[in-house]
Specification:
Beta-Lactamase, IclR family transcriptional regulator (chains A, B), transcription regulation (chains A, B), DNA-binding, 6-stranded antiparallel sheet, Tscrpt_reg_IclR_N (chains A, B), alpha+beta, transcription (chains A, B), WH-like_DNA-bd_sf (chains A, B), 8 strands, homodimer, Arc Repressor Mutant, subunit A, two-stranded antiparallel ribbon
Amino acid sequence: MAKDVPVNAVKISLELVDLLRELDGAGVSEVAKRLDKPTSTIHDHLRTLEQQEYLVKEGDTYYVSTRFLQLGAHARSRQKVFKIARPEINELAQVTGEHANLMIEEHGVGVFLYRSRGPDAVRLDTHSGMRVPLQTTALGKSIMANRPREEVERILDRHGLEAVTDRSITDREELFDVLEEVRERGYSYDDEERVKGMRCVAAPILNEDDYAIAAVSVSGPKSRMREERFTEELPNQILKSANVIEVNLTYS
Amino acid sequence: MAKDVPVNAVKISLELVDLLRELDGAGVSEVAKRLDKPTSTIHDHLRTLEQQEYLVKEGDTYYVSTRFLQLGAHARSRQKVFKIARPEINELAQVTGEHANLMIEEHGVGVFLYRSRGPDAVRLDTHSGMRVPLQTTALGKSIMANRPREEVERILDRHGLEAVTDRSITDREELFDVLEEVRERGYSYDDEERVKGMRCVAAPILNEDDYAIAAVSVSGPKSRMREERFTEELPNQILKSANVIEVNLTYS
DNA sequence: ATCGACTTCCGGCCATAGCGGAAAGACATT
DNA sequence: AATGTCTTTCCGCTATGGCCGGAAGTCGAT
């Protein structure tokens, strides 16, 4: 096994924490089985993380601690686009009645920074901090469409084009064609490419150099996302919100 | 130096992350100076954390990444008291106009799980995930007052009684006297013990064994927190909310 | 009582974390 | 341009401590 990271012990602990999140808590032996390491090694790591207060132990089960809440809140509030976009996203959710979202790109994946539920919003699995492949959301496509092609290539080299539903885009050239359209049109669609039955409209937030730093969207059930509402009304509302955010970003 | 944790490398990385949060981003040499380690060592750790996507690098500065947002959101939603209390806290903020808060204890410190700003709420530094010494808030006192004395002793042994303002309680016996009163009265006060000019009223959330699992509070400026509102109206509203939460917790 | 499945502890080996030193850049200042 | 002072980054050695096998506890079930 080639040495891939400078400090392997840290890598193990981080994988361990993320596993505990996925499993929603686990004991020593279960973690050891999943990571294919001896229980004694895992035990050492769990103890360390617990002593440093990054995990909590209840009985023989370890859980992710709220220490991460503090770090996460900091990471989010550090993004100036977050605090400027938040009121606009709330507004968007209210007037459309649906979900409204804010996404940024980080390490080549899409991160939901914030979401607001409108009065008619359906139940949905998206939550703050959720990470998804960029090409599977209208948000991600709006971002990629307004980045240099070579940067998008690098992201694809790193993450590939994993399909999430049977409608996901999986061909690289097809994706670039779509991105071209999106850039010209100014906003993007997602038609059940990530979640069955859901459609989505998104627009990018651009900086002074027309480089996408984020995207905003509205998403809802297919039944309500159609005809003029889908092709005219929602795009206009979203473009207006995106524009307000862009303006507020430059003058702040 | 005695070996204090099983995996020292992990400890270094975790301290590093927390330092980056405090500093709101930093370069290699600044971190190295603060942690009193060689730059080469710090460099190894920063690279590892960045490769694992727990940090982001912008130019020569490393920042905490939104990876923590996902972990934090999980850690919070894991607490059933959070999702049950949230609507009640929002309600409390609306009817009182002030800040309303939810706190739990973790590793012997108070953690703000959620807060809601009412229409008249003043600017305040509290935020989700914030960690404070228990004895410096009405919330913390409500929790400690409804825990076995030996458990409180253990917490104090570990964390001491650090003063935050000149009104903070610093004497152990004095604290236990206060806690005794709080338990009998059913709710607790904070009169500028953490933040100058702010007062706070809190009530515990108890489980079936009368063991405090959390606390709710309302906090506001001294000028509005006085006379009957402070001694009657707010305590009653908070006790009512706490009771609703307790009931919803048992039947769910 | 005996088992089984877990967590925890212990002690040793050798991979590797941590470090010093040097190289490669960045950025002023002269 | 050239020099000096900051960085960050790289490289390779060495002693240490991370990792592991195995044993000892712990708990519940049968």
